[in-house]
Specification:
Layout (H helix, E strand, L loop, with lengths): L1 H4 L3 H17 L72 E3 L5 E3 L8 E6 L4 H16 L6 E6 L10 H11 L4 E3 L16 E5 L5 E6 L4 H12 L1
Parallel strand pairs: 3-4, 4-5
Antiparallel strand pairs: 1-2, 3-6, 6-7
Length: 231
Amino acid sequence: MKLLSRIPFPLLAASAAVAMVLYACGDGGPGFGNGGTSRDDSKIPSTDDTGGDDTGTPDSALDDTGLIETGDTAPVIDTSPPYVGEGYDRGDVAYNLVAPDNHGGTWRLYQQAGRPVVLVLGYAQSYTFQEICSWLPALEDEFSAFGLQTAVMLYLDPTGMDAEEEDAMAWANTYGLSDVLYDPDSEIRGEWSSATQVKTYLLDGDMVIQWTNMESTSQEQLRQEIGDIVY
C-alpha cells in the first residue's frame, strides 16, 4: 500500500485501463485472461440440438446407413421373378403365367410359390372343362392345410367368343371357384394349351410341373397326384 501511494494517480489509472484492455482481448499476462493463449472455440459446448454426425449434418438429413440423403434416386428393389421358366412339360420350371382375373386384378403364377398349384385351362363349351370346374373347389378345400391353390383359365365364353372379365366373374360364381383367369390378348393360348383344349397342370411349391393331363381328368386321379407331392 505504501508503494502504491507513491505512484502518481494519473499513471496508476492509465495502467489499470491498459490491463483491462489486455484482459478483454485475451492477451494479458499472468493473472489476466487465459495466460496469453488464444481462445479455443472447440472446447465450448454446442447449442445446436438438431443432432447429426461429427460434420454438423443434422439427423434429418441422414439415412439408416449414415449416408446423406440426396433425394435424387429411390432405392432399387429387385422385382425379377424368383424362378427362371424352362417349359411346359413335366419336370420343367413353369413359365410365369400372368393374366387378368375375375377380381379385377392380375393373377401371377409365381406369387403362388411355396404351395402346390392346380391350373386348369379350357373353354366354356367343353363338358370336360365344366366337370372339372364343378369339383375343383372341393379338392381345394380338402388340401387347404397344405395351401393348395387352384386357378382356372377361361379362354372362350359360352358363345365361343374370347372371355372377358364379366365372363370370368360369372364362371367363378357358377362353380364357386376362387380364381378365374382370362386371356383377352390371346397371349397365353398356344403356349400352355390351345383355345379348344382342356389341360390340367399340377405344380409344386418350387413352380416345377409335377403332372399334366390333356382333356379328361378325374377328381380321384388329381387327388392322388396332389397327395404324392404334399405327403
